[in-house]
Amino acid sequence: MFAAMAAPVNNPDHGFCRDCLTFQRSETRRCERCGSPRLARHPELYRLHLAHIDCDAFYAAIEKRDNPALKDRPVIVGGGKRGVVSTACYIARIHGVRSAMPMFKALEACPEAVVIPPDMEKYVRVGREVRALMQALTPLVEPLSIDEAFLDLSGTERLHGMPPAVVLARFALTVEKELGITVSAGLSYCKFLAKVASDFRKPRGLSVIGEAEALGFLAEQPVTLIWGVGKAFAASLERDGIRTVGQLQHMERGDLMRRYGVMGDRLYHLSRGEDDRRVHPDSDAKSVSAETTFDTDISAMAELVPVLRALSEKVSARLKKSGIAGRTVVLKLKTQDFKLRTRNRHLGDPTRLADRIFQTGLDLLRREADGTKYRLLGIGVNDLSDDDKADPPDLVDIQSRKRALAEGAIDTLRGKFGKKAVETGYTFGKGRSTNPPEPIED
Ligand code: DCP
Ligand code: MG
Fold this sequence. Notes:
The active site is at 148. Mg(2+) binds at residues 54, 147. It is an enzyme of class 2 (transferase). The chain has 442 residues and is of the alpha+beta class. It is 38% helix and 21% strand. Strands 8-9-4-10-11 form a five-stranded mixed β-sheet. Strand 10 (183-188), helix 7 (191-198) and strand 11 form a beta-alpha-beta unit. Helix 13 (301-322) packs antiparallel against helix 14. The radius of gyration is 24 Å and the shape is globular. The structure holds 2'-deoxycytidine-5'-triphosphate (DCP) and magnesium ion (MG). 2'-deoxycytidine-5'-triphosphate is lined by residues 54-59, 86-87, 99-100, 146-148, 202-203, 337-338.
């Protein structure tokens, strides 16, 4: 194995084999030891430490694992109430089948496909197993969804006896052997480019974007590569004549911010490969949240707001019951195409009040209500502490203070007469007329 080799560690001229994990001294096309063509080589290979790992065709890969007869057949996981493709295996993708495609279209493109209804319980279980293997590599694992996470592998070289690049390759082999599915990994110096890299050569990819090549690489890319630039925003950039990241590299920060606000700042930095976001380890156990998935995707504030209010009250009730409060409010949205958006707002002091959670969430939500259709909305707090220092009356402004007092009164009434005794203006009547979905708690 790698660690046992008397290897010239960190010599950038040496690549390694992704199948037997041995160093490769020369420019051979195949591994000198096992003959594999899967060699990793890059001038910065042994210096980079920020990784993004994403499982390949996740749901479909699990179904193929569990039924070997499907191995060489096109497999689509999906259907059910929404009637869309959740994912398709890479064979079905050759025929043009894609996630979120209506099932009838997918079957037009690939009539011979085997369609399997989703088994979420199983996928969640495998997702957890993948995560446990990640956490064995570093405590700095930040999950983004069921099948992907960022990992900060800096400082782990001594622990593993090998540089992060090799740790990643070994991880991929372990997942294949132990869990029977495959992953792709991206390695870079920042989150943005690590995520871009992991998508490069799927399936079973290991791609590297180094610092030296970042600017040149980015210059060639379409603006949609930038995290947060969806179809609608790309269209407005296009109206301003901006199509490539390279064009953004030539614009000034002030100009971008004047035109596009906070997003302008992001465009400025990310287009230049500047991203200092750190990897935040999984903080599930340290947060209280509630979320709901809609029956049909929604984009209108008028429909999102009452749900946000109901969820905020739910979170607040749980905080109050446990005698705790949170200092950071987290808004979570999942778009129609399953992209997760989380937005945080740090409060001056911890809160347990539904109204403060709601108002903060509302402020965050307004920025995201850009016509995007959402399938999931969630709200929560983290940075938890005891509630003795929560919502100090002398720190909140007069309006919030009034609302805090009102909320205290509502709590007392609900305590006496039950949950439905008082409904606020935001949620009043919604339960009867539009049948809002029940929040699902984390
Ligand atoms: N998913 C879904 N509907 C979507 C997108 C994804 O139900 N529109 C589910 C099914 C996927 C899983 O989430 O298997 C992970 O999403 P990815 O975007 O990572 O897609 P895959 O893992 O399926 O494929 P890839 O190899 O492109 O990562
Ligand atoms: Mg995936």
